[in-house]
Amino acid sequence: MTKAAFQSGDDRQRKIVREAKLQWQSRALLTAVLVLAAIGLISRLLPALTPASAEGLAICAAFGLLVWLLHAATPLAALTGFLLTSSLYLSTVTQPNGGCFHTALLPGLALFVLAFAATRFRRGQKEQIGVAESRRGRGASQVAANMGVAALAALTLPRFIAGNAFSDPSVGIHIRHLAILSAALLTASVAALAEAAADTVSSEIGQAIGGAPILITTLRRVPPGTDGAITLFGTAAGCLAAAVVVLAAIPTLRLTPRQAVAASIAAIAGFFADSLLGATLERRGWLNNDLVNFLSTAIAALLALLA
């Protein structure tokens, strides 16, 4: 066994110990996201269950069941995914009649498909070097970290106000301000989903075919799986994944070209922020991977909101 392999094994062991000590961060994050999403979801369902709401809950429940049957997530993670996808759906669906093809559910589905495919790409090879995703699927805190910001941003959208529904200058100032706020929050939600896709795909593809990664802060070669490490192929795949999610949102959420560009740039910026946080705060044992992922999606959302 080579010196690099020994170091890789040592690094993995240190990372396992570090993650175990910081599990409280994952539990706190999961609890906070679930509570806030549940409160927001209940407010969306009140005062009455409309046909659109019933349709959305049924679709999201079926999707959560499928994810669990595919072993892409644990039972609790599938339940968390149901709650967050329901939040995305009900916050962006046209009430009261619905229409699932014009909601944030489809960009969320693009995130799942990309992550699912990337996770299983050359899985055996990734298992040999100890960086593969668990065969039990993603945990609930991972789902909350990847989708929590997008769902919470969507839940803050003004009720029943679509991002581009009030372009008519004859409408009132208050309504137009709500439309501007809605467009910004919608862009932030898409940016968070796109960043999550970029992060997951870049990690999985980079570990499979990226070659020797480099640490983003020092540009020195490090073993695969090192926090904050990037590869050329992984970075390219991550940027492509972000673009796919944004492209899925353009027709479904009726994003303008400006919104799409803002979401894409913010997602890529958040993606690099994830690597920077991993190379610094995560490697020092201050943050665990779930919190780093959550913060990077929050950074992407915030940048899109400001843009």
Task: Please give the share of residues in helix.
Answer: over 70%
Largest sheet: 2 strands, antiparallel
Q: Specify the number of helices.
A: 11
Number of strands: 2
List the strand order in the largest sheet.
Answer: 1-2
Structural class: mainly alpha
The whole-number mean of residue pLDDT values reads: 85
How are helices and strands ordered from N to C? HHHHHHHHEEHHH
Number of domains: 1
Walk me through the structure:
- The structure is a single chain.
- A two-stranded antiparallel sheet has the order 1-2.
- Helix 8 (173-209) crosses helix 10 (257-282) and helix 10 runs antiparallel to helix 11 (289-306).
- The chain has one domain (8-306).
- Helices cover 72% and strands 1% of the residues.
- The radius of gyration is 19 Å and the shape is globular.
- It has helices at 3-21, 23-45, 51-69, 75-92, 105-120, 123-128, 140-155, 173-209, 232-253, 257-282, 289-306, and strands at residues 214-215, 229-230.
- By secondary structure, the chain is mainly α.
- It starts with a helix and ends with a helix.
- Mean pLDDT is 85; it is low at 1-7 and 160-171.
- It contains eleven helices and two strands.
- The longest helix is centred in the middle third of the chain and has 37 residues, at 173-209.
